[in-house]
Amino acid sequence: MMSMTFGVSSSVTLLFDFWDVHGPAGMVLSVFVVLLLTVFYEVLKVWRVWLSSCSKLAEPQPLCAVPPSYRTDSSSVLESSPSESSLTPMDSPAPTPSTRNSWLLHGIQTVLHMLQVSLGYMLMLCVMSYNTWIFLGVIVGSVLGYFISFPLLGQM
Q1: What CA–CA distance (Å, rounded) separates 34 from 12?
Q2: Residue 61 to residue 101: CA distance in whole angstroms
Q3: 60-110: per-residue pLDDT in tens?
Q4: Which are the contacts of 127, defined by CB distance < 8 A and separation ≥ 6?
Q5: Do residues 10 and 24 touch, judged by C-beta distance below 8 A?
Q6: Residue 87: its pLDDT value, please?
């Protein structure tokens, strides 16, 4: 039965049977790989936020438009605001490049979401090996990835 406490052994099997670590050199390499995967996970989160902001710019226009004329006399605010009956329906436009781009961005976001969730579960399973070095690799990779990608959020 597997031990459910953290240990500092240099022997561990990670995720797959072929990723069997024996010795300090293999552990250093495995910790480095896990660290890079965690940095990629953090950058992937920021990339999805950036794509989300791009897709909001590419959204199609609404199907109803508010007429430009409003009442400007001294009536109440409720009377001067447009109601549902004052919305004029617009013809549904044919698929334009922006609509196609919107679908493309949505497809890319879906694939990136699938990749992010899969990578997150794989990193969780790495931590569940209860190896202290692998755990520290995930933590340091998360800190480093956040440190690298956080300034990119401010530029969006």
Answers
A1: 13
A2: 14
A3: 545 444 444 544 555 555 455 555 445 555 555 555 556 777 788 888 889
A4: 134, 135, 138
A5: yes
A6: 53
The contacts of residue 67 (CB under 8 Å, 6+ apart) are 82, 86, 87, 88
SS (H, E, C) the chain: CCCCCCECCCEEECCCCCCEEECHHHHHHHHHHHHHHHHHHHHHHHHHHHHHHHHHHCCCCCCEECCCCCCCCCCCHHHHCCCHHHCEECCCCCCCHHHHHHHHHHHHHHHHHHHHHHHHHHHHHHHCCCEHHHHHHHHHHHHHHHHHHHHHHHCC
- Between the two ends of the chain, the Cα-to-Cα distance in Å is 49
Beta partners for 101? none
CA angle 108, 19, 124 (to 5 degrees): 55
- Cβ burial of 151 (10 Å; 0-12, 13-18, 19+) is exposed
Q: How far is Cα 108 from Cα 31, in angstroms, rounded to an integer?
A: 30
Q: What distance in Å separates the CA atoms of residue 76 and residue 40, rounded to the nearest whole number?
A: 55
